[in-house]
Amino acid sequence: MERYQRQLILKGFGLEAQERLAQAKVLVIGAGGLGCPALQYLVAAGVGCVGIADHDVVELSNLQRQVLYTSADVGTLKVENAAKRLQQMNPEVKLLLYPVAVDKENILETISSYDVIFDGTDNFESRYLINDACTMLNKPLVFAAVSGFEGQLAVFNVEDELGIKTNYRDLFPVPPDAGEIPNCAENGILGVIPGIIGTMAAGEIIKLITGIGNPLINKLLHYNLLTQEQYEMNITPSNEYEPPISSAGFMNSDPENLTHSFTEIDAAQMNELRKNPSTIIIDVRERHEFPKLDSGIYQQVPISVFETFASAEIDAKNIVLICQHGIRSVAAAELLHQKYGETKKIYSLKGGISKWRSHFNHTT
Q: According to the model, what pLDDT value does residue 255 have?
């Protein structure tokens, strides 16, 4: 009672709401900039069981916004570090860890036992996959996204007072092409933005569980830090969307099942290809991005001018595209395949430089 006393005395909250929290199970997918603040406030509020799904390790560049981690955690699993600190914060909460990438093979089993799902991921493939799974299993989904100085928040798959419910595909029916929309690693993010939006997401989850207030059901909230302006946009169901009836329906959401016109490789395969004199490795990051690579090994052609570059003939038989996270390199690989077809071998480094950093010879 003492731990939750400040919220127990709130008019309209009380013991009944606290008991609902204690009985609830919430799954947070993505223990990054959005997941960290959401996890902290869900655990502090006394949600009975919290699942944490994330396969990534802590990187130094995470620490500017992912406030559950410290410099000593770099190189170790996010879920393990998050759980350690969350358990210290509130040992009464049960924590379940999923240190794996959520994909079409495990998504249904992973979310099936939870009452509310929070999508704090940073890529479109995961967002569509999580959305489709929640729609299929009728799970309430709290969605959040951030970029630059702005953030978005919505509640999907929950009926409003008219019995209407919407999902992510009603808002964005068609996934963008690879590399079409930059993520935070490419576009940048002010650290407090995911803190604000992630905390607001925790608030929406608490509202859904306890029944207080008016959650953002069938609404998208847009927030701008620079002006402190926010507005809500109503979402209506799309007649084009048909929820999947089995995991096979996730085919269009899971990048592992897309038929690519190029080959995704790891760093070891890239280094083998490097030994072939007819191989060129092209870094498609912008010139201001770090780390800088050895220009004697890697040719830099920013994605912003890549189409012009690709109009000229490339003599090499093997073309390897690399970028920070393996997103823009996919777009560049598709562009080259349109020109060369099967006459050249085109590769993209999966996961990018950030995943295989130790394999590169940096100049800075």
A: 39
